Amino acid sequence: MNSEHQDHDLDKLEAILIQALKACEAAEVFLAKEEEIPIHLEAGRVRGIRSRQSQTVALRVFLDGRLGYAAGNDLADGRTLIESALETAAFGARADFSLPPPAPTPAPEIFDAAVPKVTLDAMLAQVQALADDLVRHTPGLICEGRVSRESLTVSIVNSAGLAQSYARTEYGLAVEGVLTRGTDMLFVGDELSSCCVLNDCTPLRESVFRQLTWSSQTARISAGKLPAIFLPYGVASALLAPLTAGLNGKLVLEKASPLAGKEGRKLTDNKFSLIDDATLPHRPTSRPFDDEGVPSRRCPLIENGVLAGFYYDLRTAALAGKKSTGHGRRAPGQPAPAPSALVIPAGQTSLDDLLSDIKEGLIIEQVMGATQGNVLAGDFSGNVLLGYKIENGKIVGRVKDTVISGNVYTLLNDIVAVGSGGRWVGELFTPPLFFPALSVASQR
Description:
It contains 9 helices and 22 strands. By secondary structure, the chain is of the alpha+beta class. Strands 1, 2, 3, 4, 5, 6 and 7 form a 7-stranded antiparallel sheet that branches. The termini are far apart.
């Protein structure tokens, strides 16, 4: 969407705001417009191509010290939106915060005009070629692929004088494969996403080739406490949920997080840091401002092992006596704290060096169902969907019927090494992480 269309949307939101302010003390109007075209490929055949368009308009009003809220998908029906929001105010939460005034915002590179211009034929050819390469590498592999392009615009106006918008694009590419050998089923796959067109599939292809190579044999692993290396998907699928729950300002305020009251104290090994930075270029979760209009910024959460702070939206921050960190997200409904673009800074140790001194250990590629544990306490427990045995410094095969469990804070307090390199997995950039003792249960 060009700037002319964005200005037109802002004008419509201003009109709703003006009408709402005739019946309330303060108000905010939010608009998100999204268009996505995904292509699904299954076993070499197109399973579906369907364009999806959505529009959400939301109004939040401050009336007699309470919040009213309503949302819909018709920008032209402002009257119904206003009436619904005013009706809910009598039962709404207390309005304990102020809406943000205009302020300078960063301008991350998150829009690529080439994304909406990629043809369906080009998208299909790209994912088909990727799937064909994998099948040629490993005959018998059943592949599914997905490629998508998406355009998003977000606009917000409020009674504090704020009126701003941004546009963001996203291009995503994913592939999954299943290889059946008798009763054994091997699952491999990977995905990439960017705000720019992904013309080079080499990292995706090589990642799956590596998984297939490391899985060419199976190996039995001992049960008990073993050295373990979490690869990026392993970090994201097992450790991210309990860690971000603990850092959520709303859960801290409610005393549901074990980190409440520990700001400024040592939390993890000093080799570990975690930053949330929605100003990074080309990331589909970056943005100039959050869904409440608060400017995005680099937000340290853990610095060299010390708990630096939590992430907040406007209301949670006000109740906690803090300032919003620009982490208000509507997904869907009223804004709540949520991370955006998380970064675990890489270390200096290569994967080969991480492996070199391990007599018996486990490499975790991906975990399934890790949130079965008490996530709020930092616990995780799940099946190793894809993982490998380390023996005398070498990867000797894929493990089966293996379950891992632990506590994210206990693990992060004792890190052997933070690996070099790293990659994005959804909203998280992470290198490999090496821990000396992880609880492993396995059927021998």
